[in-house]
Design goal:
Number of strands: 12
CATH architecture of the largest domain: 3-Layer(aba) Sandwich
CATH superfamily of the largest domain: HUPs
Structural class: alpha/beta
Largest sheet: 6 strands, parallel
Distance between the termini: 28 Å
């Protein structure tokens, strides 16, 4: 997958079949759209293109209302990782600004999709809107297509409903700690990616050395406090891990994510780790002594060892 940060560098895409959107979480509904892109691109010997936005448009347009408390399922790094797995050919990450938001739907189509990407086909989800004040829709696109020689397809409502998924449902499942439900909606494991560093000397002293995973974006949605069964990957064979999450309730962005690998391993300092979440084992407990903590972690580890993943 090729990644572009501007439209000028993406001018050599062959027979571009294009869609746009946030694609937060890259869930099942998104994959329906991406598969449509793939099918149509293969028919015309073309390439698939997703235009996405950073930061999320709501963060820019409504910073004190809809965007203020918007937490995203995927960080930028995680979204790129998940999109690569879908077989997408080209990803264009637009720096979303107030200036960009003022581009009209006609201007976006003519000056970007046609002039810069030479789009052959544009595919949108059901009830999709785009352009300044969301003025553009499928009917407007189809009219522009007839006038400018490109095709437009709207994914039928039934196809989207068959993948009855929304980022809202996934976010709620994650915030409830229901990892298995969120994973079913996503059609992949919820993921946290970030650089690791050794941490928590006390845990190491009782036999559970751990690493802190840096949360790279303040708006990254992290599940509630507790202990989780995860798979850890970082350029080595995937290994089972035990993840500890602790949030400061007074400051949600002050979140600590630590992971202990249940098997022996080399140093992971400064490596970018991927944590794939399988199950929440328990809520956070208030434990009085290190010995009490050690005994509880032994129980937690035994549960993870019994899980098949």
């Amino acid at each position: 997958m090729r990644i572009f940060k501007n439209f000028e560098d993406a001018g050599d895409i062959r027979n571009a079949v294009v869609t746009t959107g946030s694609f937060d979480g890259v869930h099942m509904g998104h994959k329906v759209i991406l598969q449509h892109l793939r099918n149509h691109a293969d028919q015309i010997g073309g390439e698939t293109v997703l235009i996405t936005f950073n930061p999320h448009p709501r963060k820019v347009l409504y910073p004190e209302s809809a965007g203020k408390d918007l937490y995203l399922i995927s960080s930028q790094r995680e979204k790129i990782h998940l999109l690569e797995k879908t077989g997408l050919d080209n990803l264009i990450i637009v720096d979303f600004t107030m200036e960009f938001s003022k581009i009209t739907s006609i201007g976006f189509v003519k000056n970007i999709l046609l002039s810069k990407l030479h789009a052959r086909k544009i595919i949108v989800g059901f009830n999709h809107h785009f352009g300044h004040n969301r003025e553009g829709d499928y009917d407007a696109l189809r009219k522009l297509g007839g006038e400018n020689g490109f095709e437009v397809e709207e994914i039928p409502e039934q196809d989207i409903q068959n993948e009855s998924v929304s980022s809202t449902k996934i976010r709620k499942s994650l915030l409830d700690g229901n990892i298995q439900k969120a994973n079913a909606y996503l059609d992949h494991f919820y993921i946290v990616m970030g650089p690791a560093r050794s941490s928590n000397i006390l845990l190491a002293e009782i036999g559970f050395p751990s690493y802190t995973i840096a949360i790279e974006e303040d708006c990254k949605l992290v599940p509630p406090n507790g202990v989780y069964a995860v798979t850890v990957n970082g350029g080595f064979e995937p290994r089972k891990g035990m993840c500890f999450i602790r949030k400061n309730q007074d400051s949600p962005i002050d979140t600590l994510v630590e992971v202990h690998l249940t098997e022996n391993h080399e140093s992971l300092d400064n490596k970018v780790l991927s944590l794939y979440f399988h199950k929440r084992l328990r809520e956070e407990k208030t434990l009085i002594s290190l010995e009490e903590l050690r005994k509880q972690l032994i129980i937690d580890k035994a549960q993870i060892d019994e899980l098949i993943f």
